[in-house]
TrEMBL record, chain A:
Keywords: DNA recombination, DNA-binding, Transcription, Transcription regulation, Translation regulation
PANTHER family named in the record: DNA-BINDING PROTEIN HU, INTEGRATION HOST FACTOR SUBUNIT ALPHA
Pfam family for this entry, one: Bac_DNA_binding
SMART domains, per the entry: BHL
Domain of life assignment: Bacteria
Reported function: This protein is one of the two subunits of integration host factor, a specific DNA-binding protein that functions in genetic recombination as well as in transcriptional and translational control.
Family the UniProt entry places it in: Belongs to the bacterial histone-like protein family.
Organism expressing this protein natively: Phaeovulum veldkampii DSM 11550
A single GO BP: regulation of DNA-templated transcription
Lineage, top ranks: Bacteria, Pseudomonadati, Pseudomonadota, Alphaproteobacteria, Rhodobacterales
Protein's name in the database: Integration host factor subunit alpha
Subunit (UniProt): Heterodimer of an alpha and a beta chain.
From TrEMBL, chain B:
GO CC, any one term: chromosome
Oligomer status and interactors: Heterodimer of an alpha and a beta chain.
Pfam families in alphabetical order: Bac_DNA_binding
Signal sequence, start to end: none
Keyword Manganese: no
GO molecular function, one term: DNA binding
Gene label: ihfB
PANTHER family attached to this UniProt entry: DNA-BINDING PROTEIN HU, INTEGRATION HOST FACTOR SUBUNIT BETA
The name this protein goes by in its record: Integration host factor subunit beta
UniProt keywords, alphabetically: DNA recombination, DNA-binding, Transcription, Transcription regulation, Translation regulation
Organism the protein comes from: Phaeovulum veldkampii DSM 11550
General function of this protein: This protein is one of the two subunits of integration host factor, a specific DNA-binding protein that functions in genetic recombination as well as in transcriptional and translational control.
Stored InterPro entries: Hist_DNA-bd, Histone-like_DNA-bd_CS, IHF-like_DNA-bd_dom_sf, IHF_beta
Length: 100, 95
């Protein structure tokens, strides 16, 4: 396994390569795609990208937590968490690509 | 929101681009992430989140209907961890 880390730069480089816009504009488009997904999630929407996966927001109710170091009980306030469910295609490609 | 609505939004903001180019841009971004993970790479998008691959060890599973045990091979699964900024935004804390 190569274990490289890709960043926004690699995504905008791919857009630059595939679509032929300037590097600057490619970077801005990557940013606005991530921005629109984030905004929809903040509004509480589910974002479903076919053959990629589904991002959804789950409401967590408040509970008592414990500071693992001190053992002290601390209340955890209700919060919203994001969950990502990969599509079958993504799961299959990740499983096949990392085999053996 | 679904993929086509996302494409629509980007197209509206960029009237100088052809619809087919906007489709290609959006598809390229998602394809690139899937391909990276298929190679075992991580994709770290600061503020948004990180996509990575986790290994699940081989185990003996059980068919819940029949109760017979089956060997499940080691496999790799996609994983997403939400970025700090997005997690905060979801809870109404801008920046």
């Amino acid at each position: 396994m190569s274990e490289k880390t890709l960043t926004r730069m690699d995504l905008s480089e791919a857009v630059f390569r595939e679509v032929g816009l300037s590097r600057n504009e490619s970077a801005q488009l990557v940013e606005s795609v991530l921005g629109h997904i984030s905004d929809a999630l903040v509004r509480g929407e589910t974002v479903k990208i076919s053959s990629f996966g589904t991002f959804s927001v789950r409401e967590k109710s408040s509970r008592m937590g414990r500071n693992p170091k001190t053992g002290e009980e601390v209340p955890i306030s209700p919060r919203r968490v994001l969950s990502f469910r990969p599509s079958h295609l993504m799961k299959d490609r990740v499983a096949a690509g990392n085999k053996g | 929101m679904i993929r086509s609505e996302l494409i629509q939004k980007i197209a509206e903001e960029n009237p100088h681009l052809f619809q087919r180019d906007v489709e290609k841009i959006v598809n390229t971004i998602f394809d690139e992430i899937v391909e990276a993970m298929a190679r075992g790479d991580r994709v770290e998008l600061r503020g948004f989140g990180a996509f990575s691959v986790k290994r699940r060890d081989a185990r003996v599973g059980r068919n819940p209907r029949t109760g017979t045990s089956v060997e499940v091979d080691e496999k790799h699964v996609p994983f997403f961890k939400t970025g700090k900024l997005l997690r905060n935004r979801l809870n109404g804390e801008e920046d």
